[in-house]
Amino acid sequence: MKESILVTGGTGYIGSHTVLSLIESGYDVIVLDNLSNSVQTPMLRIFELTGVMPLFIEGDIRDQRLLETIFSKYAIHAVIHFAGLKAVGESHQIPAVYYENNLAGTISLLEIMSKHELYRLVFSSSATIYGESSEMPLRENMLDRQPTSPYGRTKRMIEDMLSDLSKADKRWAIAILRYFNPVGAHESGKLGEDPVGPPNNLFPYISQVAIGKCDELRVFGNDYPTLDGTGVRDYIHVCDLAAGHINALNFIKNKNGINAWNLGTGKGHSVLEIIKNFESVCGIPISYKIYPRRAGDISACWADVEKAKNELGWVARRQLSDMVHDTWHWQIQNPNGYMD
């Protein structure tokens, strides 16, 4: 009998790729999403790729009545929790909204899970919890600094909450996955990153400049202590990231307690390096302009990935060239995103 996995925020960028991986791995999937920053179309694309239509429920994890209905109706074996607001810059502008949405939403979900005695959880965390550090690569135990954004602080608070929960009730089996910078798209070109409004993330921003949807790329800061002055990040292909969730699910099947892993490549690339790679792949010059640094951004960040390799048996397999190629393939196949 197939296990059923509830995926909150499952129509989003990372969520939809993970839903695809779950179906390909033999799971039944229930997707809960309020569509505040996404559309339902990825579910149809997943059906095209797999022949399986995920069960989709539109709703918010803060809606306790809806959660009660879902958990009473379906035999759920584990939850993968993506749902939440995620833009670093926006979180500085509306911090109260981020705290209410991300924290209250998670508490609501945990309460209903406890009520129905379901204790297996994979949580979507972030490398932003590490804050600004001069020591690289970032290891899972480097938690001595505070996150530099309200978004990052919500992730850190949820991790602390999950740790307290696990200590209080030994039945919990929790996997925390700290993402670095997810990019790319499914190689078919049917799933990709489709931001609502102007893109906040580098890869969709560059690809929209290349295709003519945006006039120029804004590069925030060229005075960082890096090789070319622009920010350095650990970019990970979204399909590698999705695969990490399958490994994490397998890990917590028979192991209680709480564990955290970095999911990245272990390599850093600068903004200007990414621009040059895009120009090489798409054959189009990328127009860009330098702007002042954004609040909350850090100069450089990349992962120590040994813990995930040793404990989860997971490594990122795709290279930067794959990330750029798949992003561009998605963009030219879907010039208007999922509206095409």
In short:
By secondary structure, the chain is of the alpha/beta class. Helix content is 40%, strand content 18%. The chain has a domain of 210 residues: NAD(P)-binding Rossmann-like Domain (Rossmann fold), CATH 3.40.50.
Verbal overview:
The protein has 340 residues and is an alpha/beta fold. The protein has a domain at 4-183 and 235-264: NAD(P)-binding Rossmann-like Domain (Rossmann fold). It is 40% helix and 18% strand. The chain is built from eleven helices and 14 strands. The strands form four sheets. Strands 3-2-1-4-5-6-11 form a seven-stranded parallel beta sheet, sandwiched between helices. Strands 12-9-14 form a three-stranded mixed beta sheet. Helix 2 (41-50) links the parallel strand 2 (28-33) and strand 3. Helix 1 (13-24) packs across helix 8 and helix 7 packs across helix 11 (320-333). The longest helix has 21 residues, at 95-115. The chain is globular and about 55 Å long. The two termini are 37 Å apart.
Secondary structure topology:
Elements: E1 4-8, H1 13-24, E2 28-33, H2 41-50, E3 55-58, H3 64-73, E4 78-81, H4 88-93, H5 95-115, E5 120-126, H6 150-168, E6 173-179, E7 181-183, H7 202-211, E8 217-220, E9 232-233, E10 235-237, H8 238-252, E11 257-263, E12 269-270, H9 271-282, E13 288-291, E14 300-301, H10 306-312, H11 320-333
Parallel strand pairs: 1-2, 1-4, 2-3, 4-5, 5-6, 6-11, 7-10, 8-13, 9-14
Antiparallel strand pairs: 9-12
Helix pairs in contact: 1-2, 1-8, 3-5, 5-6, 7-9, 7-11, 9-11
